[in-house]
Amino acid sequence: MLDRDVRARLRTLSKDNAEIVGLHLVMTGRLIDEDPELAYEHAQAAARRGGRVDVVREAAGLTAYRTGRFAEALRELRTVRRLNGSSEHLAVMADCERGLGRPERAITLAQSPEAEDLDAGTKVELAMVVSGARLDLGDVDGALAALSGFRVGGHTLLAARVAQAKAEALRAAGREQEAEEATAGFPAAVLAQASGELDEDEDVLLYDLEEDDQDGDEPIESDEDQGDHDDPDDADVADGPDLAERAEAHDVDGTDVDDADLDDTDVDDADADAAGSDPEIGAVVPDEDTEDK
User: Fold this and answer.
1) Is the pTM of this model over 0.90?
2) Where are the chain's structural domains?
3) Helices 176-183 and 157-172: crossing angle, nearest 10°?
4) Check: CATH 2.60.120 for 87-206?
């Protein structure tokens, strides 16, 4: 089932709709590694029903990022920041700027005041993005300098990723031996897992899946009928063998949508320019003003 914090956030939805959104969020968490594209579809289905809930938009943004939809991911994560005031995904947002071919904006984002308040792990993530952005600009010395102040001990996944980022910068500087030494102490399996993947914490940020005996598929109710809400636990999602079928029965194909979450589709002009004619990109609620206007 979903963890208590997510269930509490879904409390703004009607009970029936919260259950359906919860089904999609659980499937998003399950599929993000093995089938990111299908996870993205579930996150989109959840966003069509609960687009004003920050954890729903967060799921949409992270799955868009994992599937290479960088303009969409950037817009969604900016919306999350507007909804809950958190800059915890600043590193992902900066990497989206890189993915859109805008390394200068990635560096500018990393120099924003919000970056000073990030936790240590996210600062390391952001430093790796900056290092890559510097390499994109041909600034090898800057790429190495971006990582020089960070030391991550042990043979953890994050430490391996930092070592790989340093090795990439060293190779760009023509320092092959030092590049080999940077990753020499890590097991091959850890290095393989670190290559091109998100930190594991990103994948479990929203979802805590546990076995639950509850079951039942109730009719769909519009979010406009808010009324009195039950305890957040009422939004629990039955986690049984038919979970995927139940989730796919609602909205994955985009044909069963609650109009309450589709009444405003404004898109940030800067993101629209970046996205071009990408048919996958579509806003659910107004997004926050971007820094690059």
Assistant:
1) no
2) 1-84+210-288, 87-206
3) 180
4) no
